[in-house]
Amino acid sequence: MNPVWTIAKKRDGEELSATEIGEFIAGYACGDIPDYQMSAMAMAIYLRGMTTAEIAALTDSMLESGACFEWPAGGLPKVDKHSTGGIGDKVSLPLAPMLACCDLQVPMISGRGLGATGGTLDKLESIPGYRTDLSMDEMRAVTENVGCVISGATSDLVPADRKLYALRDVTGTVPSIPLITGSIMSKKLAEGLDALVLDVKFGSGAFMKTAELARDLAESMVATGRRMNVATTAVLTDMNQPLGRMVGNAVEVDESVAALEGEGPEDLMEVTLALGAELLLSTKKSESIETARKQLQKTIDSGAAREKFAQMVAAQGGNLDASREVAPASDVAAGRGGYIASMDTEKLGQAVIAMRGGRRKLGDVLDLSTGFEMLVRLGDKVEVGQSLARLFSPANVADEGRELFLSAVQISDEPPTVGPLILDRVS
Ligand code: URA
């Protein structure tokens, strides 16, 4: 294969064969194809798109670049959820132990913050001692002994994605439906799952800014999962404001523990129960969404899910009862009265980055104690001087965080129309 011809074929809008895609990705993974040719191919895919058959071949070849989990026959069903990323989205933390209390096992591979969105691994690292670098054998053991694990991708899992993702991040080729599908689905399929639910977010804090784009991405990922015999469904959820009240790292762990103790905010619980119910239905642990939600709620009411989370944390070297540091609090006051009309939710994520809770560049060391607590939601009426949020930040970066926060929240005289949190499901 001459990689130049394959790039030119995609550049001209032609469909690539599975062999051409397979050879290109394998060549890139082993270093025969350099970054500049992969960059050109990623841009051609971004501009020209891919057919369903091409997306399938892309996902397969990325999956084949590394190892996969294989589970002994006859064990409990393996399930996972994946979110396309949002601000304040901490659903994985309560949901994994809740599922593990329903006779399911959750081998969850998670990531770090990406752009303005927070990362599950960064959040969990605010728990003293918690290890996010488990080997595949360690992940397997925690999954089987506890029922859930949340750790990072090891170097042998989907190495093609690690290289390609870093390249896309610096070549303007992240928001491409074929490339996102290949990236997310290859990692999830490497977990050896029976069922997967995708939380595909749309709005000002999501990669997909409109519900239409989110639906296209959801359909692409659901079709890819099903083709690989994984019972896959998706839920389209609104990300025009943060999910839950807390945004940051340690403070989101605090809110997750509160959720497991029955004190979770309504929106966080709604999304958590909706996603969990999909998996209970897909694995036939429940007959209807209603009974599934009740089953999941029971794991909280009984204290079992809280206990399971503490067990998982302990199995990964952490101590949930050790105190997590939270930076000093200060108020963010409204500059005028009116209705909370809209939020630039991505900018709210940038406020956390400004307070060192997220990365500006690769390798940045995070201050996991920073963040904020939202005290208002879209549509709320506020008075001038009223507190919109509590900022958790060291004094030297608090002003930058406060400024970004205030510029992200629009207050107007007219109340806005607020859409549903859960727009639809895709199956
Ligand atoms: N998350 C991923 O893992 N990959 C993408 O391409 C986008 C979000």
TrEMBL record:
Ranges of residues in domain Pyrimidine nucleoside phosphorylase C-terminal: 339-412
Single Gene Ontology BP annotation: pyrimidine nucleobase metabolic process
EC number of the protein: 2.4.2.4
EC primary class: transferase
Gene Ontology terms: cellular component: cytosol
Alphabetical list of InterPro entries matching this protein: Glycosyl_Trfase_fam3 (IPR000312), Glycosyl_Trfase_fam3_N_dom (IPR017459), Glycosyl_Trfase_fam3_N_dom_sf (IPR036320), Nuc_phospho_transferase (IPR035902), PYNP-like_C_sf (IPR036566), PYNP_C (IPR013102), Pyrmidine_PPas_bac/euk (IPR018090), Pyrmidine_PPase_CS (IPR017872)
UniProt KW keywords: Glycosyltransferase, Transferase
PROSITE patterns per the UniProt record, alphabetical: THYMID_PHOSPHORYLASE
Chemical reaction(s) catalysed: thymidine + phosphate = 2-deoxy-alpha-D-ribose 1-phosphate + thymine
GO molecular function list: 1,4-alpha-oligoglucan phosphorylase activity; thymidine phosphorylase activity
Oligomeric and partner information: Homodimer.
Homology family: Belongs to the thymidine/pyrimidine-nucleoside phosphorylase family.
Protein name: thymidine phosphorylase
Native organism: Bythopirellula goksoeyrii
Gene that encodes the chain: pdp
